[in-house]
Design goal:
Elements (H helix, E strand, L loop, with lengths): L22 H4 L1 H15 L4 H14 L3 H13 L4 H6 L12 H14 L8 H10 L2 H23 L15
Helix pairs in contact: 2-8, 3-4, 3-6, 3-8, 6-7, 6-8
Length: 170
């Protein structure tokens, strides 16, 4: 009997789903534009903040593919397992994050869950206190980019579990 990386018998696991479509192959110009947006949004943005934003947005959007990718990238970049795990409950575990990171996480939630209304002035102003205007513009772009990636991945049912850090060369 074979086991997976978590020492579970592979026969005991549910079968992996198949993607609905390979959108990156069917719309290569869109994919290339998304990659350019991704690269541009990260310029001048702290890579730790960028990964926290991507993980939190992916949690909110239930995007398993992006969670797989960005938790692996964050771990490979030296992020702690503890901070990644606590991110889903950051309001109760703020002591794991800097005030600047909390401001970014709060802004991420407000931008990601626009169906709750709008981005509150207090959330925006808090972020503006911790990020200069250029950095804030890039943070908003990074949040927007991960939300777009999430929507592509969730809609097309991209399969999580196969990403290796460094696979996406930006």
């Amino acid at each position: 009997m074979t086991t997976n990386e978590h020492n579970h018998p592979t026969s005991a696991l549910n079968p992996e789903h198949t993607p609905r479509m390979r959108w990156t192959e069917l719309a290569p110009d869109v994919y290339k534009a998304m990659l350019r947006l991704e690269v541009a949004s990260r310029k001048g943005l702290d890579p730790v903040v960028a990964e926290l934003v991507k993980i939190r947005s992916s949690q909110l959007n239930h995007c398993a593919f992006c969670l797989d990718m960005h938790t692996k990238d964050a771990l490979a970049a030296g992020e702690s397992i503890e901070r990644i795990v606590q991110l889903s409950t950051w309001e109760e575990s703020q002591h794991f994050y800097t005030p600047k990171e909390i401001a970014a996480i709060e802004l991420t939630e407000a931008v990601t869950v626009l169906t709750d209304g709008f981005v509150p002035d207090a959330v925006y102003e808090k972020a503006a206190k911790h990020f200069d205007e250029t950095e804030l513009a890039h943070l908003i772009a990074a949040i927007t980019a991960i939300n777009a990636w999430n929507r592509f991945a969730v809609t097309t049912r991209m399969v999580p579990g196969h990403y290796t850090p460094g696979d996406m060369k930006h």
